[in-house]
Amino acid sequence: MGLFDFIRGELIEVIDWVENDPKIIMQKFPDKDANIKYGANLTVREAQEALFLDEGQFADYFSPGRYELITNNIPVLTSFRNWDTGFDSPFKCDVYFFSTRTFTDLKWGTQNPVILRDPEFKQVRVKAFGTYFLKMEDPKLFFTQFAGTNPVVRIDQVEDALRGIISPKFAEALAETGVSVLDMVSKYSELGDTVGPLLQKDLDPYGLKLEKFVITSISLPKEVEEFYDKMTNINMVEDMNKFQQFQTANAVEKAAENPGGGASEGIGMGMGFGMATMMTNQQGQQSPQGGNKDAGKAVTREEILDTLQKLGGLKESGILSEDEFEAKKKELLERL
């Protein structure tokens, strides 16, 4: 290989970037300290932008297109170097490519519960999760304020950095809306539209643009969810007598699923006795105030004996205690 072949091999003639990794938002062109040939070809593809740095200073900016790197196409760099017209020597620059496409499905979430005032529960803690879409708006700002001299920046790094910013902005949006946690599901889009502008103010200094902000879930503390579920169950029944029957039926079902696991513990104190009471009421012994059409109806000997037999089965299965069974047995025998 001759001297000119060696020199030619040390010069860069083609500069471009093929995005093999969709997670990369900034990539330095791997020049390996080689000089760029005067007249080299630069290709910037759609959804890309390129920045040239000369001795640490911004030299030129290129939007999508194909360029021949001559003095006419690199005016800022030309003025830096004070090249005369026709001067065609190689030059050294750092070239950075930026992806300007929209990065979708980025994750966010509240690291700790957000405490807010609620018109229904007075004060409550909530956790929220969702996604957002992000796009490069100003490569120069992004380079100076975020990337620095890193040769590669992945969108994952941006995503991690923004987690500490999004959570307080979400809390601000919740405080502004004053929406009850019971109504938040119907307000996801409204909350997202409120968070977006607040968050954009913190993204502007980094040259980033928030394209979309989505809330996918808002969860309550376990104790609040349990209270809400109980209130929902109460609203589903017409009166407390039916609610007690509903609770008893649930307890019996749980006991049946775990026959060897201490059924009386699963039902709770007094629940077995409540079951016995319900069975007796079904035999026509509900009070007239309950509105039962069978109130006052005589109970036959066969019905009483049948009830005693069923109560005996509940005692054998552990649902009724010995004392509860004896008390009910005495009450029924007195009717014979």
Major sheet details: 5 strands, antiparallel
Beta-strand percent range? 25-35%
What's the number of extended β-strand segments?
12
- Which CATH first-tier class of the largest domain would you pick? Alpha Beta
Number of domains: 3
Number of helices: 11
Radius of gyration using CA atoms only? 38 Å
CATH architecture of the largest domain: 2-Layer Sandwich
What class, by secondary structure content? alpha+beta
Q: What's the CATH topology name of the largest domain?
A: Tetrahydropterin Synthase, Chain A
What is the CATH H-level superfamily of the largest domain? Band 7 domain
Strand order of the largest sheet: 5-4-7-2-11
**What's the overall geometry?**
rod-shaped
Poorly predicted ranges: 1-8, 262-271, 285-297
Summarize the SSE layout with pairings.
Blueprint: H1 3-9, E1 11-15, E2 24-28, E3 35-44, E4 48-54, E5 57-62, E6 65-68, H2 75-81, E7 94-99, E8 102-109, E9 114-118, E10 122-136, H3 139-147, E11 152-154, H4 155-177, H5 188-203, E12 208-219, H6 222-236, H7 240-257, H8 263-267, H9 271-285, H10 301-316, H11 322-333
Helix pairs in contact: 4-5, 7-9, 9-10, 10-11
